[in-house]
Amino acid sequence: MSIPRGSDSDAAKVHQAAIALGSNIGDSHTIVQSALQRLDETPGIALNACSPVYQTVAIGPPQPDILNACALLSTTLDPPTLMTAMLAIEASFGRIRRERWGPRSLDLDLLLFDDLILKQPGLTIPHPSMTQRAFVLVPLLDIAPDWVDPVSGQTIAMLAHQVDWSGVKLYSLENE
Ligand SMILES: Nc1ncnc2c1ncn2[C@@H]1O[C@H](COP(=O)(O)OP(=O)(O)OP(=O)(O)O)[C@@H](O)[C@H]1O
Ligand SMILES: Nc1nc2c(c(=O)[nH]1)N=C(CO)CN2
């Protein structure tokens, strides 16, 4: 938890955000857990909930399965500042972008931020592909079934039951 408490008069507004994590290069399970810890240690961000980790068939060029999870944050940061903090954490885990949707050491997507709809260079909220992606909606369903997507007006539970779950299974460390 890294949100400082102040008096009511100087309290910054606390927002709720949902994020997605993905990794399929390196020790992906450790990378996902470490990234969550790094987010929680970031000033202005507190980690409130994490989904289980799922092993998912990669959508995109042929590559190993991806470990995906979602998390809920409280934050006093504004959306661009939160996104910048997330990109810095991605970079610190060695993220290199070579091909679209290619293998990644760590991908962090900002899915939802309160009930905000935002489209600006470098940042679209809600994440534009969120509602079609079982690898996002299945873990998000575990921690935020009642959150309403402000674009479609549908809850995560409703959206999750409209996508194909076949490429998504719970990850077990015992499979390693
Ligand atoms: N809501 C968002 N979450 C994450 N990145 C976003 C978002 N909106 C815009 N972006 C921008 O998109 C870029 C992310 O590109 P990246 O290569 O990670 O795409 P991707 O996550 O692999 O693919 P996709 O965007 O389809 O999930 C970042 O530079 C970021 O500025
Ligand atoms: N299974 C899976 N497929 C993907 C993922 C992802 O996180 N998991 N991310 C993508 C774009 O970043 C494209 N395809």
From TrEMBL:
SUPFAM superfamilies: 6-hydroxymethyl-7,8-dihydropterin pyrophosphokinase, HPPK. One of its GO terms (molecular function) is 2-amino-4-hydroxy-6-hydroxymethyldihydropteridine diphosphokinase activity. Its EC number is 2.7.6.3. The keyword Nucleotide-binding applies. CDD domains: HPPK. The keyword Cell cycle does not apply. InterPro entries: Hppk, Hppk_sf. It holds the Pfam family HPPK. It catalyses: 6-hydroxymethyl-7,8-dihydropterin + ATP = (7,8-dihydropterin-6-yl)methyl diphosphate + AMP + H(+). One of its GO terms (biological process) is folic acid biosynthetic process. Pathway: Cofactor biosynthesis; tetrahydrofolate biosynthesis; 2-amino-4-hydroxy-6-hydroxymethyl-7,8-dihydropteridine diphosphate from 7,8-dihydroneopterin triphosphate: step 4/4. Keywords: ATP-binding, Folate biosynthesis, Kinase, Nucleotide-binding, Transferase. Residues 100-111 form the 7,8-dihydro-6-hydroxymethylpterin-pyrophosphokinase domain. This is 2-amino-4-hydroxy-6-hydroxymethyldihydropteridine diphosphokinase. The lineage of its organism: Bacteria, Bacillati, Cyanobacteriota, Cyanophyceae, Oculatellales. The gene is folK.
